[in-house]
Please model this.
Amino acid sequence: MDKLRITGGRPLEGEIRISGAKNAALPILCAALLTAKPLTLTNVPALRDVSTMAKLLGEMGLSVKRSPERTVLHAPSIEDPTASYDLVKTMRASVLVLGPLLARCGRAKVSLPGGCAIGARPVDQHVTGLEAMGATIAIEHGYMHATAERLRGARIVMDLVTVTGTENLMMAAALAEGETLIENAAREPEVVDLARCLTAMGAKIQGAGSPVIRITGVRTLGGAEHRVVPDRIETGTYLAAAAATGGKVRLTGAVPDALDATLDKLREAGATVATTGDSIELQMSGRPTAVSLRTAPYPGFATDMQAQFMALATVAHGTAVITETIFENRFMHALEMQRLGADIRLEGNTAIVNGVARLQGARVMATDLRASAGLVIAGLVAEGETVVDRVYQLDRGYEALENKLSALGARVERVRSGLL
Ligand code: UD1
Model:
């Protein structure tokens, strides 16, 4: 397995361009299942998760043509509405095919995702929402077997805020008969981007970005062209890296408005942050100040930024209390950061991080995508060499990571498996 070798201690300085958002691209790729006409997407990031989704859709008979500029998906018919365990187990977002398949084909067979490095992550909200719309879903041999004549609109009050749950139901409702109301819906910008794409395809959706989404079903959806929004988590990751290393960066092609909670925390940590419509500049002099935070659904502080801010806290002045409220077991990176010399105490879903003056490079291993990002930031700060194992986790969600970090002056190289 490839590794990333980082020689730390240099501030990040320079300018890079932000890629399209993974978490917007994944549901939008699935939206192609809803129409017999071609869906053309731009700004789709070149990521492992995107390739996995393309493969999954390809297995169902979709044609997926990718070039660096555009991705064209076309599903005149769907041969086999099945998402196999082999692919679903590698990427939980595969469950996003369930709603569209059911709406288009009247049936779907989708593997249950099973365990996950960051906690249980059930899909009960997806299932009960679709059942409220008239679907019958049986669990047999690890698969959800879903059937429905034509889904019908329903009022669905989600028990908790779920991003992919909201997206699945929104896609299903787009082709259902009558009106669907999703209450306690996720408000993430990626939900809004999916709604924009569906609307361009002819769907009737109001309220995306608010807790109540109203969808009036239509008989068929058409083709469309859509540009995927920039990745706010990638943006936040580079900002946190620049802040932790005492650097100065300019990120272009970003959406500062989607990053309010992150930018507030970076300012609280002592960074100077300036934004324009689509760029963000950050400068940090000296050590950051410790900032406490609590993850929450959007517009709260993103759980996908928690590990990166823990890295920032490890070298801050003072003590940060970091509380994770979205996922259980999302502190695996803390134990690895301790190997770099961080002073972190875990108490249930809270991490108490006492900042230290310096970290020391070591070999570390990551269990999930954002944990890996946190370790990369810690490695950029640490003295000497840090080797982050399992780079495939980073490849799932960071386009051209080494190139972008190198462009900012970091000393980073990918070591092919077997060479270390
Ligand atoms: C999405 C993001 C992921 C991010 C997460 C939270 C994508 C592809 N992934 O994941 O990067 O970390 O949102 O912002 O967009 N839950 C249930 N039952 C359900 C569904 C969820 O109990 O049916 C729980 C989960 O276990 C978790 C919480 O709800 O505790 C939020 O999860 P959810 O928003 O669904 O995460 P994902 O959509 O999987």
Summary: The chain is about 30% helix and 25% strand. Residues 23, 26, 92-93, 120-126, 160, 162-165, 190, 303-304, 326-327 surround uridine-diphosphate-N-acetylglucosamine (CB under 6 Å).
